[in-house]
Amino acid sequence: MNFSFTPIGVIHSPYKEKFGIPRQPSLAPSARMTLELLAPYNHADTVRGLADFSHLWLQFVFHETAARGWRPLVRPPRLGGNDKVGVFASRATHRPNPLGLSLVELIGIDTGNGVILELAGADLLDGTPVLDIKPYIPFVESRPQARAGFIDGPPPRLSVCWSEKALADLAIHRIRHPELATLVEEILAQDPRPAYQDDPLRIYGVRLYQLDIRFRIAGDIVTTLEINAL
Amino acid sequence: MNFSFTPIGVIHSPYKEKFGIPRQPSLAPSARMTLELLAPYNHADTVRGLADFSHLWLQFVFHETAARGWRPLVRPPRLGGNDKVGVFASRATHRPNPLGLSLVELIGIDTGNGVILELAGADLLDGTPVLDIKPYIPFVESRPQARAGFIDGPPPRLSVCWSEKALADLAIHRIRHPELATLVEEILAQDPRPAYQDDPLRIYGVRLYQLDIRFRIAGDIVTTLEINAL
Fold first, then answer.
1. Residues 6+ apart with CB under 8 A from B183
2. Residues in domain TsaA-like (chains A, B) (predicted)?
3. Which of B26, B73, B90 is opposite residue A140, by nearest beta carbon?
4. I want to staple B144 with a disulfide (CB 3.0 to 4.6 A). Which of A4, A142, B163, B226 is the partner?
5. B143/A contact by beta carbon, under 8 A
6. Most B CBs within 10 Å: which of A140, A150, A151, as the mutation test of the B interface?
7. Structure confidence by residue, pLDDT tens digits, A130-149
8. Can you say whether residue A6 is alpha, beta or left, with left for phi > 0 and alpha for psi between -120 and 50 degrees?
9. A 80-139 residues inside an 8 A Cβ radius of B
10. Which domains does chain B have, with CATH numbers?
């Protein structure tokens, strides 16, 4: 038995690679993205009444990792990369069916030319194919008392510092991306390193928009070193 | 572009037809069902650690309505069947991609022979193909303040009465299904009629297990008339 789905829309996002994307939605609220509906779904009728909802579910495809298959056990970063849990007890991107599920905030809907949804707090890679949009129903789906195993709250945050070079670079690039400083801080504070890496000299790079953000992490301080156009 | 998915499991449920299923999960907590994982996913490893979570997301296929296609506008029962909203502003089963999303309670996991998850509060049709299981993450997904348009709380409930005949039938069938009385009351209290129907003489039937539950609705009172084995 086999079910086949066609994207109803595609995500346009500052996140150009998986590395650096916060591990849950809502952790980087400055990451604005858009969901562009594709024909024949891009008619104002399909989203009539949607603006009355503040939050939406997106069901989407992990298109970049889909080809890599799955394993029964995964190492969640929240367990320090040591303990293994079952793939269905995790939100790992490598799954038997590479389906994602994200709760996002709906900022606005533009139906002037096709349908574009403006979203905040989303954690989706640029180009992500979206299969469905559903309104969030708090009386059913908000369960603050749910027991959530090893995921008992937001992960600890690093402090973010900026080098002189990075501040100079920022001054240039924030003209085009006014939220860049906040977004970089939100993303780097999450500690994007793989769980088993802790080398204070190693320089990492994360792509945001068409920029490469270079940084280093020592202890619980992350330092933004420079921002280069790609 | 096209994505193809294979079920990882199948639902065994008392709900044998769409009519009568509460319109949101959690409204009929007595509806116990199981999710049987299919090979090669039915290994205890895939669910290691899952028992630490009280709630799960199921991403599944509306397999019975999938072939009927979709329309841009739908009439949600909560709006009395008069107003139309866009398909993406509703949780209607007829969608461009017939994907469902339900939050269910995890009661237990049996890994003695394959993997069977025991679930409560689910609203899935018997035989539903499940594509993915994800743990519920309250710090991200519980948003009690979310604005939810026309879905501002649970729907009003009808009062449930039992005819003498129904009570006699119940005495027979509750031997096999001890929760039957509660489940019937939970389901009928939701008013399963299509929104535009209001005929106090009309007798409806809803299938649960291998039983046909006959009932009538007048005003805000639903009367269970009889329970027949099918």
1. B14, B28, B30, B31, B177, B208
2. 5-145
3. B26
4. A142
5. yes
6. A140
7. 999 999 999 899 999 999 88
8. beta
9. 84-91, 95-97, 99, 101, 103, 129, 131-139
10. 9-141 (2.40.30.70), 159-229 (3.30.2310.20)
